[in-house]
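Allow me, if you will, to draw on your knowledge of protein folds for a short while. I am sending you one protein, given as its amino acid sequence and as whole-number tokens for its backbone shapes. Kindly check, if you would, that the fold set down in the tokens agrees with what the sequence suggests. The record follows directly beneath this note:
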Amino acid sequence: MPVTDSSLRRTPRLLWPSVSLALIALLLALCSLSYLVYRDWRDEQQDNLIQEVLWLEQSLRMHLEGHQEWADTLARDIAAGKTDSARFAHLAAFYLRENPELVTLERVGLNRQVEWDSHGIRRDGRQLNSTEYDALWRAGRLMRASYGAPYQGVDGKYRFDLAVPLVRDGQLLGGIRVSYLLDGLLYHQVPWWIASKNYISILDVGGKTLAQKFDAAEQPGNISHQTSFDPPGYGLYLKAVSYRSGLGLTLPVLTGIIIVLLLTLLYAVWRIRRHMRERAATEQKLAQEVSLRQAIEDSMKSGLVAIGLEGEIVRVNRAFCDMLGFAPEELVGRHPPHPFWPLDQHGVLADAMEAVRDNRQQEQGFELTLMRKRGDTLVVRLFATPLVREDGSQHGWIASMFDITERQRQRKEMDAAHRRFLTVLNGLAAGVCVVDQGSGQLLYANPGFAEMWQVGDADAPCCVLLPGLRAGRDGDEYGQEFIVTGERCLLLRRRRIEWVTGETAWLAIVSDVTAERRREEREQAQQERFQNTARLIAMGEMASTLAHELNQPLTAIHTYAAGVSRRLPEELALPAGVRDAIHAIAEQSRRAAQIVSSIRAFVKKHEPQLERVEPARVVQRALLLAEPLAAKNGVNLQLEPDRRPCQVDMDPVLIEQVLLNLMKNAVEALVDAGTLRPSVELHTCVGNGKWRVEVVDNGPGLAAGMQDNLFTPFYSTKPEGMGIGLNICRSIVEFHRGEFGAVSSPEGGCVFWFSLPLAGAELGGAGGWSNEMPSC
């Protein structure tokens, strides 16, 4: 019998591992079966998708090849003179009507001008841009039909072109341009039985979607396949993504049955295990109950006291004794008045005890003053609840007390700080408010906000709709924006905060920035006008310089090619195509030189529009334009004019540009060098038949070797400079028959100067200004 009892006790311990292993094995087998069924279904879906994509790609290829054959035939008829503009318009209109994916069908000349379209002869002189002419350029080069790279039309949709050259007796006459709309090609050429099951799209080499056809009611799945879309090529891919579809009833039904059986088995095992643990758990609860009560009483920071029906103290915890300084034996068994009752609080404490006996306890408890053993007092909050036996009879109360002395002191200090804070907020000129995030209700507003936003009473509950408070994302904690109301511009700064009620709200500060905004707008407008003018002048000078520099190597190439052609005897046997290549080199270099000459003539400098003006007015206008930049960077800008009257034949706009550029360069040089107390002085003087201007700064001056390269094109000491500003300034001065230069000042800094002849004065020799007249 002892052996039998021992085996009965060991049986559950051996049973649980075996049952667990069996359940794990069953679960693995069921999961493997479900996975195999799902994998077979997915493979079948992938194979079907690949077949449909290949069929669609072949169908589109045949469709485009048919269009190419038709365009080749039309090109040959036009080159042979069999088709005129009227017949071309008739055929184009018919073909566009029969093929809705086509956008345009037109004949283009060698000068990129559209000659014929579906309406006949085009007389508006429309020319194709470089993107639209790409396919025609390739077709002319290859002398066969070619496709162009995809591009985006004016409607925002992507297209590609098919170009067929017009060739008569080996000479290129132009070409036929057929433009396709990628969206239209998918819309009209993808069959419904493919589009109803798949999301069809055309991607470029970077993965960007150029066209697509899909059912908005369906959701794309994770089964896809893509293949090259050629023609037109250029890295285009045809991609199909199957819509999400169910697995049928086999796998869900099988999975449901398996889950139900598995849950049933788990429930049975759980019930058996629960029944075996109930006995052990019951035996432990009784021992834990006693230790748990003691641990709870000793771990609580609040004082606990059990009071009998007559008010006597039955039990106290350690926190209660530590709070008052009495030992447990000094309190247990004592009747009212208790030793921790102050003499002046006996009546209040007796009333509180009577209220507890009559079940008239306040919801917030009782706020009472007690006395410690050492004689000082403390303020506590007391809550009491009846002690009821199992038979329902009451045998006393248990009360919990919290020391709120420090909390009460902090609350008083917080109230005082709150009053000080409100005093500061109410004295601010800026408007401050708090708005509920969800409803937009105004929770707080200072008088400045009420006056600025015309709320009326700042303490009245109302709904204020401030712009931008609900526009941010969920994670957007900060934000600011400008609000224009009539003639005023307000700056609204906002921040997401947690209000005193625990709800999310917006803290908004509104400031009147009308004057600052107007000043910034004026400065920005002046800066933009200056940048636009400088950019246009710089680009013209750059184009002229490049045309001049490229002209010589192109002339050399043409000379060398012509020389080689003359030195080759006619009777000398050369490989096929060598003589033609030499002639082509000479011809192409000549053509490139003509293009460069055209560009140079286009940007060629013209004589300025001279008029007789007083230079003092020009200087004053340039100074007004430069003052905002100097003030922004903290540079002192001064004018020391020569007040003797004079007149100069000049273009005022160009001379203003020269002065503004020199002053801007001086300010930027001072800022970059970090000069203390930076200043720029503008001097003017008249003498020896000339009017002279000097721009003097107190910066570091010109470095060694820098002065020789100042007027070299594209040489600049600025990291972002283009090196063409001073070169343009010198060119403008030379147009006015003047002189331009720069020197380092002996006192430190740099002096940029230029001089212009006075109206009616005779020009002297080439001696230079510095030899004729001292500096200003």
Remarks:
- The chain has a mean pLDDT of 80.
